[in-house]
Amino acid sequence: MLWLRRRYLVVTVDGESMTPTYQPGERVLVQRAAPGSLLAGQVVVLSRRPDSATGVGARWIIKRVVALPGDAIPRDTVPALRTAPGTRVPAGHLVVLGDNPDRSHDSRHTGYLTTDRLRGVVLGKIG
């Protein structure tokens, strides 16, 4: 059981930022992952704050990865990064977006999120 808890999380979707892919109240299975294992297009779970590493009482953010460290900065689709220095996403940073732009607070508003907030990759819905 301890092995499973170290490897997987079950997260309940809260909010409409990922509709139509995930609906509020749906539960998803999340496999813990390291930043270096991510691929653009994957849906990830991040902690709301960088210091909530334990996950106890944590609130999560569910978003889709659109750019990884070393990828070109997606200036056209992410207004908060239009004036970011350089041409590539810096090491230790991600660009993430919700599937429902009208209901998502994401990199379009905040710019980069740091990889230390990554908790895992969504494998799919439960139930």
What does this structure look like?
The chain is mostly beta strands and 127 residues long. The chain has one domain: Umud Fragment, subunit A, CATH 2.10.109.10. Helices cover 8% and strands 31% of the residues. It has two helices and seven strands. It has helices at residues 2-7, 107-110, and strands at 8-12, 27-31, 43-47, 60-67, 93-97, 113-114, 118-126. A seven-stranded antiparallel sheet has the order 1-2-7-3-4-5-6. The longest helix is centred in the first third of the chain and has 6 residues, at 2-7. The relative contact order is 0.27. The mean pLDDT is 91.
What is this structure, in a nutshell?
The chain is mainly beta and 127 residues long. It has helices at residues 2-7, 107-110, and strands at residues 8-12, 27-31, 43-47, 60-67, 93-97, 113-114, 118-126. InterPro entries: LexA/Signal_pep-like_sf, Pept_S26A_signal_pept_1, Peptidase_S26.
Question: What are the main properties of this structure?
Answer:
Umud Fragment, subunit A, seven-stranded antiparallel beta sheet, 2 helices, mainly beta
Q: Layout of helices and strands, plus pairs?
A:
Elements: H1 2-7, E1 8-12, E2 27-31, E3 43-47, E4 60-67, E5 93-97, H2 107-110, E6 113-114, E7 118-126
Antiparallel strand pairs: 1-2, 2-7, 3-4, 3-7, 4-5, 5-6
Largest β-sheet summary: 7 strands, antiparallel
CATH topology: Umud Fragment, subunit A
| Bulk shape | globular
**Cα-atom radius of gyration:** 14 Å
The level of helicity is under 10%
| CATH class placement | Mainly Beta
Number of helical regions: 2
Secondary-structure element string: HEEEEEHEE
Distance between the termini: 20 Å
Strand content: 25-35%
How many strands in all?
A: 7
Provide the number of structural domains. Answer: 1
Can you tell me the CATH superfamily? Umud Fragment, subunit A
